[in-house]
DNA sequence: CAGCTTGGACCCCCTCGCAGC
DNA sequence: CGCTGCGAGGGGGTCCAAGCT
């Protein structure tokens, strides 16, 4: 009796080949095919070869839906993020993607558009329903929504800080970075340092501002009024115009590089030179920040490390669900000195 | 007889509730639960309410793996991309995400790190195996790998051009943008326009270069040698230093805004003013390009539209598999005039 | 009979076709 | 005809028993 045409193979033609089809072609049972597909050891080499070549002939790919159904795991990590257009988020995402891929997971990404609680909630619902083994949430604002919660007991890791510490988180050490930036300017002899903050609803922005404030206090420097922008060059420019008009501003720490860029343009238009008249420090260290005019002194974030740690933490939670997850991991940023800072103008 | 504790509910405790659990609690069969979950009309309102409240009590979420298994569809779109860190890719991705979400699909994203054929192939394999209903490939280079093919008959759309037209594609009209940039500079009285190209293996970069070349020819302008960079400000700076050394360079069209940024810095360092001595045009229109010094004249790409069209095309293919897919869609970019271009220096 | 490979039964959860009231 | 339930897959994994050496 010919075995090459089992019932499964005969059933339908343009349907992806199943284990049963491979089994029929190889003249074995589908369980043996399963063993081969999963690289089990207890298969006769000769049998394995027959199965493997049958797989190749048929172009067999295992059906992840069926697999997920029986295993109860999906080999998929969910990522919720605002605005991948922001460099920081994009780089964190890229790093997460790399780390996930190395671990054999793929990524289900949802970019939340509106910063409304409902939008976030829907994204999470979609993701957990779409079957993920764990969730990375990039950007803490998302968690500020009081309604945010993950119903289904899916492990969660937060990148970029979780103000209420409800979840394990991985984050750049914002405080260390902001303090380094502020002290650097103070050390250059500036009487004080102004701060151009990020959006007020960003936890990262708030922590940078707080650390700037603390550094000023610690140094006994006066604390100038604080203004919040929204991470864009446009808002850096808008607020920058006000700062440029004040002659007592000689040093500004901007909460990110784009804000710094807008600020520099505003200063330039007002006839105030950077760094001769005003020193500027950014935050992020975008690849292009070294090519701004002048090249920007800034705080470099190690997004790669943040992404890698997120995935590592998540996998740990997934693989040993019992254990209480590690608390927070802080990744230390690094001050990169370039040409946008200089000693305070002597005068006065 | 109490129905609230059916066999299914008793079987295991910390397993997500299934239809059977809901059915047991509501005192109906699981098929009825299915009907309610899928919003079918043929359910008695009173029954539906009972089921709905049972769902709420149990926190029921439907199991997408099982659903996908029976339906043969996953409600997931795969995205393959190089480097989300590149603004263009990130913005396309964001747009795709939005469009997909609106259509009720989620996104399985793979960022390919190395530009090797193997890496790409593996990404595609992972994605098709991970069960996607369709595939968007961002950045044409991926397709240049001769080995690239999608085995499993999954619909594919290419964003950013498909040189060999093997797949339907959606793309910015690179030629129109590059021609507009070149003509703009020519119209300002420059004898000719130099081009600072993107990476040679990028189809978009090649098309921009070709259109620049054609525009010069059409205008009877001499064609200066062409140099290829790699999209980064760093390479713009490197090549920019060479260009800055040549006094006959008075107008440069850079293949993207980051290249233009590096170029401007190089010109600045060489003491050549932009736009008084040299005019520069970029490509992309990043949000921060308006805040460069000087604000950059550039070609604005409508990434939003590209993403939206990709998803639309893909869904069309998915929903009516028979039809031959539409060929290519071109999205027209727009020249944005700012302060980095000026009439050719009179002299000579 | 120990130790190996192999196959049969059953379950995962949901949806569809059909039958029953 | 309206609403509901039964049974059968859909593809693959685990448990356990059967067959072989």
Automatic annotation (TrEMBL), chains A, B:
Keywords: DNA-binding, Transcription, Transcription regulation. Residues 1-22 are annotated as: Disordered. Residues 17-71 form the HTH lacI-type domain. It holds the Pfam family Peripla_BP_3. PROSITE patterns: HTH_LACI_2. One of its GO terms (molecular function) is DNA binding. The keyword Transcription regulation applies. The keyword Transcription applies. This is LacI family DNA-binding transcriptional regulator. It comes from Kitasatospora terrestris.
């Amino acid at each position: 009796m010919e075995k090459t045409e089992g019932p499964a193979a005969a059933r339908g033609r343009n349907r992806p080949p199943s284990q049963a089809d491979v089994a029929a072609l190889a003249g074995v049972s589908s369980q043996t095919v399963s063993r081969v597909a999963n690289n089990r050891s207890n298969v006769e080499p000769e049998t394995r070869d027959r199965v493997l070549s049958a797989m190749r002939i048929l172009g067999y790919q295992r059906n992840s839906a069926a697999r997920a159904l029986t295993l109860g795991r999906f080999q998929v990590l969910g990522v919720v993020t605002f605005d991948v257009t922001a460099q920081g988020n994009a780089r964190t995402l890229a790093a997460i993607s790399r780390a996930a891929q190395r671990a054999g997971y793929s990524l289900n990404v949802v970019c939340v558009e509106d910063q409304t609680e409902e939008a976030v909630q829907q994204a999470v619902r979609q993701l957990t329903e779409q079957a993920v083994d764990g969730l990375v949430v990039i950007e803490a604002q998302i968690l500020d929504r009081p309604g945010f919660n993950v119903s289904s007991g899916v492990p969660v890791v937060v990148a970029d800080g979780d103000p209420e510490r409800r979840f394990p988180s991985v984050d750049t050490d914002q405080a260390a970075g902001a303090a380094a930036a502020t002290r650097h300017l103070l050390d250059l002899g500036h009487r004080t340092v102004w701060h151009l903050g990020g959006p007020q609803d960003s936890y990262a922005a708030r922590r940078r501002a707080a650390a700037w404030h603390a550094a000023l206090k610690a140094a006994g420097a006066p604390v100038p009024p604080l203004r919040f922008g929204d991470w864009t060059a446009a808002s850096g420019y808008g607020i920058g115009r006000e700062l440029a008009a004040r002659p007592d501003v000689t040093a500004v720490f901007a909460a990110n590089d784009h804000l710094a860029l807008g600020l520099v343009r505003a200063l330039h238009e007002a006839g105030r030179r950077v760094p001769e008249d005003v020193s500027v420090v950014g935050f992020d260290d975008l690849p292009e920040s070294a090519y701004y005019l002048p090249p920007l002194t800034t705080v470099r974030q190690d997004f790669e490390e943040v992404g890698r740690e997120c995935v590592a933490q998540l996998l740990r939670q997934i693989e040993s669900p019992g254990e209480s997850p590690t608390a927070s991991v802080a990744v230390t940023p690094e001050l990169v000195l370039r040409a946008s800072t200089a000693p305070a103008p002597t005068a006065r």
